[in-house]
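Below is how a single chain appears once it has passed through the pipeline. First comes the sequence as given, then the structure the pipeline wrote out for it. We keep one example in the README because the format questions we get most often are answered faster by looking than by reading.
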Amino acid sequence: MPPISVLIKPSSGLCNMKCDYCFYCDETKKRARESYGFMTEQTLKNHFLVGLSVDGTKEIHDCYRHTKDGASAFDRIRSVAKIMDQCGVDYNILTVVTNYHIQVYE
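Resulting structure:
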């Protein structure tokens, strides 16, 4: 069995979701919002990793994770994963486990 890696970190303040359990959304409202970017003709090849957040079945996932307007996020993430699979892009699945997961699966 491959080793399991666990990463615990607040999401970016630029996240486009509004998950019920996320405290970070409220914290970023208190901070000044600065954005830095640059354009270049260079490309980055094979030096990135995409993480898709999927907390379980559609029911479990959408219980906590949804868009800022309250819409379901599960189908949107699933369609992105299919596109990435078709294009051969590697990605990780990031999951938050809560008491709700345990209740559903018991």
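The two ends are 24 Å apart (CA to CA).

See the next section for the split statistics.
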